[in-house]
C-alpha cells in the first residue's frame, strides 16, 4: 500500500504533462473522434464531453440514416443533424461510457475529454442490431401460433429500432422461401398482412348493471387469435386497451348506447409496455411514431341480436390425443352433468356477487382462492362458457371460465380463461389462470413423458402465474427449495478477443440471490401493487437426462404490475419426482438473449 502511495506521488507531477500531450495527440490524429466538456464538477464536465462526442459521432454516421430523413428536411442539414444526434443519444449510457476518458483538469473548474477510435464506432450499434433482429425472429414465430398481439408488438418494436440503426435501410433477412428481403419494406408488409387476417364478429350482447357487454369472436386467418389487443371508439372517446385471449374478446358500452357501427383499432405500438425496456423506450421517444392505417376496422352493430351459446365447442387436437390415452381423458357430455350444474352455480355467484353461496361447494383453500380471484380486478363473466372437463386420477379439471379484469390504477383490461380444479369429492379445490391452447398443446403432445408429468407441468405453470396475480406468497415459498439457485446471468468477455470471444458458458457471470432475499423482494412488490399479471408468450420444455422427473422450462415472460413492468426470458428447473410437491431448484431471468451464449438452459447445470 505504501509503495503504491509513493508511486502515485512520484507520478503526480508529470501527470498533467502526459495528459496534455495525450490530448494533443488525440486531437491531431484523424483516426479518433473526440469531445471535450467543462463543468463545476467532474460529472458535469464528463456529461458535456459525452454530448460533444455524440455530436462528432452523429456527423460521421448521419449519411447512413437515410430512412430517417423526412422529405421536408432533405435540404435542412441542421434539422437532419439534430435528428440524428437525438437518435445517437438513445444508445445506452453504458455503451458510450465505454469510450475512453481523460481528466484534463480537476474540480472545481473541471475539464474532461471523451474519445473513441473512429473504426470502433460500428461496435456501438451492434447491440441494437442484435435486439431488432431478435424481435423480428420472435414476431415470425409468434405469428405462426396466432399470437397476434405479441407478433405485432415485436414487429413494430423491430421497425422502430430499425429507424435508429445506421444502414438500417440496407438491413435484410431471409424469408420462409429463402429469399432476401429488405426489412424497411418487409416488416410493414408483414404487419399489414396480419391486420388483413384479423376478423371480428359479434357473438352475443348482454345487458346488466346499465352496461351493454358485446361478446366478440376474434379470429386470425380463420382460426382463434391466441391473443389480441385493441381499443374502440364509443362515439366520444377511445376506450381502455382490451386484451382478447383464445379468440374471445369484449366491448363494453353504456346500456343506452345505440351505435350502428364501431371503429376498432388493433393495438400494435404497445408504448406502455415499451417502458419495460429502457433502450426501446428511449428510441420510441426520439423516433417519429409510424401510423399503420390498416390497423383500423369497422364493426357492424346494426341489427345485432343476442344468440344463445351452446356446448358445441369441438375438442382440439390435443383433446383428441388425450381421449386415446387410458390415463387421462375428457369426459363425455353424459358424464359432465354434475359438473355443469356446479359451474352454473359458479357463474351465478360471480354475476350476482353472492360469493358466500359457493362456500359449501369448495374446500377451504378453494373458497379462499375463489374469493381472491373474483376480487382481483373486479372480475366479470364474459359469456356463457363452453366447458371441457378433463379427468385424471379421480380429480377433474374444468377448462375454462372466461373472465375480464378491470383495475382502478391501470387502463388495461385483461381477459383470462380461469381453470377450476375439483378434488375427488367434487369440491372446488383450486383455481388458476389457464395457459393458452398452444402452450397446453405443446406439453400434452409430449406423450413420452407420461400422463402424470404432463398433467403436473400444465397445472404447475398455471398455478405459478396465478400465485403472482393472487399474491400467494406462502405458495411461492413452498415451491422453491431452501437452497434454490435464483440468478441473473451476464457474459464475461475473454481478454483480448473482443468480438471473437468464444461462446463458452464458463465465461458467464451469475449474480445469485438467496430464497429469503427473493421472498422479501416479492413481499414488498405485492404490498406496493394493486395487481401483478404474468403473460407467457411462449414456452419450451425439455426433460433432463439425470435426476428422474426433472424438467427445464424456458418462457418468454411479460410482467405487468401497477407501477412497473418488464419483459424477458424466464428459466425454471423443476423437480417433479413428487408430483404433489413440485420443487423449483433453479430460477433465472434474462432481459434478452445474450449475444454470446443465448439463453440459460439445462446445459448450464
Automatic annotation (TrEMBL):
Annotated Lipoprotein LPP20-like domain residues: 26-101
Top-level taxon of the source organism: Bacteria
Record key words, sorted: Lipoprotein, Signal
InterPro entries: LPP20-like_dom (IPR024952)
Pfam families assigned: LPP20
Signal peptide: 1-20
Protein name in UniProt: LPP20 family lipoprotein
Species of origin: Candidatus Bacteroides pullicola
Source organism phylogeny: Bacteria, Pseudomonadati, Bacteroidota, Bacteroidia, Bacteroidales
Amino acid at each position: 500500500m505504501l509503495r503504491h502511495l509513493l508511486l502515485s506521488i512520484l507520478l503526480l507531477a508529470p501527470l498533467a504533462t502526459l495528459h496534455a500531450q495525450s490530448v494533443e495527440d488525440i486531437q491531431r490524429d484523424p483516426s479518433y473522434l473526440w469531445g471535450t466538456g467543462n463543468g463545476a464538477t467532474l460529472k458535469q464536465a464528463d456529461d458535456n464531453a459525452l454530448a460533444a462526442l455524440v455530436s462528432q459521432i452523429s456527423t460521421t454516421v448521419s449519411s447512413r440514416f437515410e430512412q430517417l430523413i423526412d422529405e421536408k428536411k432533405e435540404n435542412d442539414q441542421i434539422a437532419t443533424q439534430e435528428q440524428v444526434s437525438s437518435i445517437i443519444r438513445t444508445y445506452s449510457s453504458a455503451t458510450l461510457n465505454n469510450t475512453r476518458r481523460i481528466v484534463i483538469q480537476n474540480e472545481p473548474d473541471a475539464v474532461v475529454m471523451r474519445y473513441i477510435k473512429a473504426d470502433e464506432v460500428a461496435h456501438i450499434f451492434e447491440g441494437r442490431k442484435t435486439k431488432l433482429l431478435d424481435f423480428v425472429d420472435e414476431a415470425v414465430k409468434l405469428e405462426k401460433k396466432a399470437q397476434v398481439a405479441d407478433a405485432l408488438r415485436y414487429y413494430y418494436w423491430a421497425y422502430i429500432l430499425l429507424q435508429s440503426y445506421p444502414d438500417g435501410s440496407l438491413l435484410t433477412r431471409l424469408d420462409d422461401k429463402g429469399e432476401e428481403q429488405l426489412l424497411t419494406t418487409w416488416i410493414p408488409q408483414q404487419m399489414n398482412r396480419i391486420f388483413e387476417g384479423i376478423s371480428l364478429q359479434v357473438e352475443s350482447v348482454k345487458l346488466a348493471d346499465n352496461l351493454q357487454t358485446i361478446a366478440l369472436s376474434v379470429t386470425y386467418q380463420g382460426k382463434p387469435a391466441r391473443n389480441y389487443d385493441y381499443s374502440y371508439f364509443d362515439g366520444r372517446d377511445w376506450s381502455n386497451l382490451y386484451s382478447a385471449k383464445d379468440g374471445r374478446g369484449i366491448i363494453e358500452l353504456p346500456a343506452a348506447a345505440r351505435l350502428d357501427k364501431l371503429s376498432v383499432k388493433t393495438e400494435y405500438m404497445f408504448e406502455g409496455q415499451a417502458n419495460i425496456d429502457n433502450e426501446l423506450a428511449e428510441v420510441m421517444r426520439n423516433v417519429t411514431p409510424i401510423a399503420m392505417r390498416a390497423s383500423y376496422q369497422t364493426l357492424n352493430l346494426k341489427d345485432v341480436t343476442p344468440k344463445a351459446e351452446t356446448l358445441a365447442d369441438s375438442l382440439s387436437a390435443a383433446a383428441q390425443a388425450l381421449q386415446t390415452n387410458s390415463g387421462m381423458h375428457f369426459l363425455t357430455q353424459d358424464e359432465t352433468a354434475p359438473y355443469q350444474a356446479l359451474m352454473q352455480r359458479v357463474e351465478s355467484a360471480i354475476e350476482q356477487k353472492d360469493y358466500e353461496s359457493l362456500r359449501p361447494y369448495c374446500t377451504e383453500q378453494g373458497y379462499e382462492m375463489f374469493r381472491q380471484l373474483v376480487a382481483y380486478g373486479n372480475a366479470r363473466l364474459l359469456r356463457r362458457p363452453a366447458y371441457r372437463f378433463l379427468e385424471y386420477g379421480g380429480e377433474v379439471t374444468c377448462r375454462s371460465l372466461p373472465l375480464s379484469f378491470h383495475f382502478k390504477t391501470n387502463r388495461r383490461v385483461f381477459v383470462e380463461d380461469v381453470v377450476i380444479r375439483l378434488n375427488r369429492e367434487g369440491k372446488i379445490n383450486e383455481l388458476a389462470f389457464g395457459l393458452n391452447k398452444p402452450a397446453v398443446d405443446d406439453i400434452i403432445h409430449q406423450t413420452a413423458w407420461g400422463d402424470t408429468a404432463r398433467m403436473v407441468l400444465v397445472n404447475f405453470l398455471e398455478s405459478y402465474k396465478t400465485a403472482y396475480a393472487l399474491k400467494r406468497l406462502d405458495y411461492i415459498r413452498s415451491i422453491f427449495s431452501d437452497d434454490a439457485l435464483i440468478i441473473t446471468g451476464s457474459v464475461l468477455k475473454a481478454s483480448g478477443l473482443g468480438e471473437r470471444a468464444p461462446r463458452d458458458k464458463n465465461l458467464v457471470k451469475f449474480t445469485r440471490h438467496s430464497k429469503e432475499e427473493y421472498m422479501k423482494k416479492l413481499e414488498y412488490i405485492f404490498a406496493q401493487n394493486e395487481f401483478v399479471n404474468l403473460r407467457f408468450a411462449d414456452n419450451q420444455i425439455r426433460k433432463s437426462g439425470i435426476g428422474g422427473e426433472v424438467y427445464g422450462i424456458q418462457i418468454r415472460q411479460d410482467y405487468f404490475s401497477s407501477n412497473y413492468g418488464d419483459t424477458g426470458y424466464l428459466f425454471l428447473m423443476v423437480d417433479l419426482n413428487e408430483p404433489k410437491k413440485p420443487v423449483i431448484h433453479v430460477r433465472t431471468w434474462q432481459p434478452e438473449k445474450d449475444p454470446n451464449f443465448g439463453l440459460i438452459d439445462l446445459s448450464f447445470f
